[in-house]
Every structure is written in structure tokens, then in C-alpha cells.
Amino acid sequence: MVHAQVLELYSGKWQSRQAFVESPSIASFPLPCYIFVAEDSFPRERQEREKVLHYFNAPAFVLTDVCFKSNGYFGYESLYDDTGNLKGYVTWFRYMVKIVKPSVEPDSSYIWHEMGFFTQWSASHSICMTVGAPSEIQEGLRDFLSQNPESLNFADPYSIHVPLMDQIIKLYDRSVWSVRDLIRPVEKARACNPAIEPDFSKLHEDARHAIHCSETLDVAAEVMGQMKYEQASFHKKYTADAISLKTAIEKTQGYMSFQLQMLKNFRSRSQANHERLNNEITLVAYNMIMQRDSKVMMSIGQAAKEDSKVMVAIGQAAKDDSTAMRAIAVVTMAFLPATFTAAVFSMSFFNFAPGTGAHHGSWTISRKFWVYWAVALPLTGITIATWFLWQGWINRQSYKGRTVRGGHK
């Protein structure tokens, strides 16, 4: 047997009590009622689940782990007696809601509410069993029904769904705002200090929560839409003649349309949260790139400044070298004529005879002095010509190198 909390309509009042439930005992409950089973109290084995949910005619596949781990679904079945008349109507559906909460530890920063619902309706009673619904849904539903005990018309199989969906919608509202509360501090922090270093790991974790929120709302809207469609189909097939019943049916249809619209609105808000978070991630990444580029440019500028100082030093050294070379050139020019003259007159082509007594000293020059000029002048010409030829070859090689490099660009 499974421990459960039962919210039942007894003597015109909605009351809560604890009970142990299994399929046979559910039929004896005062009707209508809601049965809340905690997730940790629900059987893990398929055979045990069948014992609990047999009363609700749930398909065997719904009892498998595939459906119990699904992010949402909706199904129904009409039950007929041997004469082909409608004797009952069952539905089964599932919702998942993710609530994010502030926490230092990543694994405890959120909680999943995985809720399964099973309803059984007939003309005389209506029962809904929920598995895994949080206490706030139980409390909210109890408060609403206590204040509005006559709000449900159980001639409509979907009447029991309506107040329950109100509480589920409130839970989705909390989910959307819990994600929004992650985004807003990031936006404010950036506005106050654009240079703040972001926590990209946390931003991507927040983005994961936003994605899950949008996913569950997408599925929730589809489930609610299918539920609304099947409610309308049921009453088209089984038309009620009483005006009061038609009014109640139309009221349920209108309110379910409103609930569906609320889920769609939450889905749009969740998508906006995701886009806002993506904008923050993109903007922060762009700012970080710009800041790093700025630092790189500053480093390059500093290096260029240092290079400029080095070039100034090199220029000063070159200037000093140029001054030294000019000094050497001046000294060379000063001594070169005298050196040349000394070299010429020291050759054997010249002879100085010192004077003796009444005879003065005299210079004599060899008649072969022309040999010196015959050798020196051609040699000088050859040297100058060789230098010009060598310089021209150097210039041609340099031009060819520039042409080859230009052709490979």
C-alpha cells in the first residue's frame, strides 16, 4: 500500500486526511477527491505501479520508466459498458517544472518537480491521483477549494483538471521568475561596472536553466492544448441537453483557453529570458575581447616606444661614428698630399747630389721617369673601372631580388 494525502469533498466541504491507497481501496473513497502521492512513496517496480493505478485504467506503457522520465504527455480513454453506452472517462498526463534557487553548490541550485496525473470520471464521481506534486500545489488547491466548494461541475470530465492546472501554472510562473532572477543581477553588475570580470561558467549554467525552462513550457503548452482539444471533442460527441450543463461546459472550455494562453505567455517570457542571457554572454565576451585587444595594443605601443628609444640610440651612435669618420677623412686628406709627394721623390727616378765647396747641390731626374706614369695611370684607370663594374653588378642583383619577391606576392 502507498501512503497518500487525500483532499476530498465530504458533506459539501473539502477536507484533507492521510490514507494508504491501492487500487481496490480507491473505489471506496468519498467522491470526488484528489489523491496526492509523494514521489519517494510511489512504487519503483512496474508491477507495484499497476496495483496502484489499475483503477485509472492507465495503459501499460504509461507505467514504464520511459513515460515516468518523459518531459510531458497527455492521453485519454473513453470507457463503455456492454451496451455501448459511456460509463467512464480516464486521462493521464504529465508535467515537469524546474525551479532555480540561489546556492553555492551547483547540484543544489535547482529542483525538478516531475508530476504525473491520473483521473477517472463517471457520471457519479470524479477522482484525480497526482504523483510527485510539491506541497505548494496541495496547499494551493486545498485553499482554493475550501473557499470555493461549489466551483466544480463534475458532469464535465475535465472540471477536476481546471483548479489543478491553476496551481501548476503558478509553479511555472515561479520557474520563469527564478530564471529571470539569475539574469537581472548580471545585467545590473555590467551596467555599474562594465570592466567586471564575468563568470562564464555560471553564465552558461544559467543558460542551461533557461533552456530547460523553455523546454518544459513548450511541452506544457502542447499538453494543455491537447487537453483543451479533447475536452471540446468529448462534448461534441456527447452533447448535453440541459442548459445548465452546457453553460458549465462552456465555462470550462473558456477557462481552459485562458490557462493555455497563460502557459504560452510564460513560454514567451522564458524565451525572452534566454535571449537576454545570450545577449549578456555575447556582450561580455565582446567586451573582454576588446579589453584584451586594448591591452595588446598598449603592449605594442610600449614596445614601439622602447624600439624608438633604441633607434634614437643607434642614430646617435651612427652620428658619433660619422663624426669619427669625418675626422679620419680630414686627417687622411691632410697627410695624403705630403705622403704622395714624399713617395714620389723617394723613388729612384730622382737623385739629389749634395754640393761640395763652390758647387751647389742639385736634383737630377731619370730620363726613364715616364715609366712611372706609364704604369701608374693605366693601373689607376683599371682600378676605377673595376669598382664601377662591381658596383653595377651589385645594383643588378639587388633589382633582381626585389623583382622576384614582388612576383610572389
Automatic annotation (TrEMBL):
<keyword id="KW-0472">Membrane</keyword>
<keyword id="KW-1133">Transmembrane helix</keyword>
<feature type="transmembrane region" description="Helical">
    <location>
        <begin position="327"/>
        <end position="350"/>
    </location>
</feature>
<keyword id="KW-0812">Transmembrane</keyword>
<protein>
    <submittedName>
        <fullName>Uncharacterized protein</fullName>
    </submittedName>
</protein>
<feature type="transmembrane region" description="Helical">
    <location>
        <begin position="370"/>
        <end position="390"/>
    </location>
</feature>
